[in-house]
Amino acid sequence: MNCRRRPRLALLALAVTAGALVPVMGPRAAQADPVLCERALSPESAKFTRSATLALQRCEDAKVIGTVPPATDCSTDGGVVNAIGRAQAKLARKVAIRCGGQDHTCGTDDDESLVSIGWGAIGTCLGLKGASCGNAIGNCGDIVTCLACVGQAAAGQTVALDYGSLNSAQFGTDSPENFCQRSIGQASTKFFLDRLKALQKCWDGRLKGHHSNACPDPGDGKAVTRIAHAEESKVSRICRACGGADHQCGGGDDLALGQVGFAAQCSDVTAPSDGSCSATITDMSGVVTCVDCDATFASDCMADLGVSALVPYPQDCSPTTPPDFCPAPVVPAMIGQIAFTGSPGTANCGGARFSPPADPPFSGEVDDGNGMKLADLGLGCLYSGSASMAGVALPDGFTSILAITGTSGSTLTLGGSDGTGPADCTKGAGPAMHCVNANPGASCTLDADCGGIPSSCALDANCFFGPPTPVSNGALSICIANALRTDACGVADLTAMSTTLAVALSSRLYLTGNAASPCPRCDSGSCTAGERAGMPCTGVGTKGTTLECPPQSSQFIGTLPVSLVPATTGTSMLPAPNGAFCPAQTTAGAFGLAGARLIREVGQPLTLAGLGTFTTALGATFCIPASGSSLVDGAVGLPGPGALSISGTTTVNIP
Ligand SMILES: [Ca+2]
Ligand SMILES: [Ca+2]
Question: Which end of the chain is more exposed for a tag (fewer CB within 10 A), N or C?
Fold first, then answer.
């Protein structure tokens, strides 16, 4: 850290913890070093996966060259089963030494805590699409079971694709087709292993503190090249063997796919870094594309599962699909709009660590592990992170408009609307990108183009959820502008009188240092401060802030990615049996309460208040991922939980 950043760190830490004088202490186990444990999980799981893959692959290869019968089932072959068993025993041994505490045994009191190594919120093994790996995670031995199950599934699925549909009539014939078969199997499997190794080394570099990037790109600066090289050698090997006289895939002279044999359909998976693999395969180029995508899926998932403390497990890898809060309308049509206007909530959302507590009306609570209430959550407040940031009162008096995009059963489906302008529309950001910390913003592609402040190069905000939110804290006061990241969507059920919305926000933080007015206000028709100081405006709600009076862009310090998925008129609960509410959360608890184990927000159903008009309240509990700014993450306690509620009036307008 250079000298210039040091005062800023202290300043920001104080700013966003809203005056907390007590340093934020994690419950990090004193027994050993969680990073050493994390650094064992990633390479040892990759080594296990490699051993399992090679054992299966050697067996399949022997079938292709004709030394074992084509009917051999490699997954139950004695030699393969023994090899995988030995590899799993080795994985268990290495993990017990590095994660199991002084007794080198998982499941005893001196283990690294699951929370400290990023597995606290996981609960059950996250599995792999197409596999059945869902063991409960209570100690590091269970992590081994999970990593081995997922690793073996990744190995099995990869080898099954690479070898499983080859035409056995060619096995052991030494024909060109047989040579092509061996090349497809060997080169594809090798690509999977090489890619996994490049990813794992890249993540290990981050765990060692050599870089702080996402892997592979920009990663450690090597992974992208390694993967490209592995890819190139795979393609050239397959196409040399299978591409006909020109030794290239394509050109009309490739070996006939029917003679070589390969799956007619590629795997029904989506690689987190490469999109959907699903496609019909009709030629050698299709084979190459398919094995590439499938290996990318398996290596992405396996590498990410190995570093749960660094990255959330991609939804694409998971065997379960998330609940769909935004179903496509069964009868699609733009049939009107729904307008939501926010009402004032409590006058006091509570201080840091709820000292003083919030005032009624309440919308929810935080409980400990015995179900005892630790704190009430105020209506109209936002609470965030594991650190002791005070509750933030949300603005009121603003309107957000959603389009009614059609019907689905008894519900109206809702989507993003252009509204009447940026203050009430609900469309996502982009596509252009500009520096948030400069006015007028320079166009950019990377944060480095904007001076390097994390998330300072951002998709252009088109719509905002409410006016700027002031957070008063002496000279360290901040102003938050909530830009919509993606189109809002949801459903409104006028029979059940319920509403569920999905709203993804980029909450932009500005350190204004103005305690009396953390955000510029509109006072007597003109902006009190900020980019448009002195210029005409109309204030919104009791706080009198407005998008017309933005803070100075030079005061930008970072962005919180807040996804209200879902915000509901029902009950939204976030449990954490061991204190970690969110993937990769490393400090137990919520909102400065280390003992927190359950967060509950309760909305209010739609209540008829006039023709087409309803009073309601939405509640949301959610995870806030790391912002990318170590300053913001440290001070707020991210990754960590979030909770929010807002009351208001909903007007349904169907012309
Ligand atoms: Ca132990
Ligand atoms: Ca060719």
Answer: C
Taking the C-alpha atoms of residue 566 and residue 620, their distance in angstroms, rounded to an integer, is 6
pLDDT at 6 exceeding the cut of 60: no
Q: For the packed helices 34-65 and 140-163, what is the interaxial angle rounded to 10 degrees? A: 30
C-alpha to C-alpha distance for 500 and 16, rounded to whole angstroms: 30
Residue 182 C-alpha to ligand 2 middle, in angstroms? 18
Q: How far apart are CA 640 and CA 637, in angstroms?
A: 6
State the CB neighbour count (10 A cutoff) for residue 65: 15
13 pLDDT band (50/70/90 cuts)?
Answer: very low
Distance 89 CA to ligand 1 centre (A): 17
Coil/strand/helix, residue 158: helix
pLDDT of 26 > 80? The answer is no
- Helix segments in 66-175, DSSP class H: 78-99, 140-163
CB neighbour list of residue 69: distance below 8 Å, 6 or more residues apart = 63
- Helix, strand or coil for residue 308? coil
Q: Say which ligand is closest to the CA of 252.
A: 2
Q: How far is the CA of 4 from the centre of ligand 1 (A)?
A: 43
Q: What is the pLDDT of residue 280?
A: 92
* CA 640–ligand 1 middle distance (angstroms): 27
CA of 183 to the centre of ligand 2 (A): 15
Provide the residue ranges of all domains of the chain, joining segments of one domain with +: 34-317, 331-428+479-514+556-653
75 or 563, which is more confident: 75
Measure the CA–CA gap between 259 and 165, rounded to whole angstroms: 11
Residue 134 pLDDT: 80
| pLDDT at residue 324, rounded to an integer | 67
Phi, psi of 61 (to 5 degrees): -65, -40
Q: Annotate 211-232 with b (16+ C-beta within 10 A) or e (fewer).
A: eebebbeebbeebbebbeebbe
What's the CA gap between 503 and 507, in Å, rounded? Answer: 12
Distance 31 CA to ligand 1 centre (A): 10
Burial 93-127 (b: 16+ CB within 10 A, else e): ebbbbbbbbeeeebeeeebbbbbbbbbbbbbebbb
Q: What separation in Å is there between the alpha carbon of 292 and the centre of ligand 1?
A: 40
pTM: predicted TM-score of the whole model, two decimal places: 0.65
**253 Cβ contact list (under 8 Å, min separation 6):** 243, 244, 245, 246
Burial class (CB in 10 A: 0-12, 13-18, 19+), 182: middle
Spacing, Cα 239 to ligand 2 middle (Å): 7
Mean predicted confidence (pLDDT) in 602-607: 94
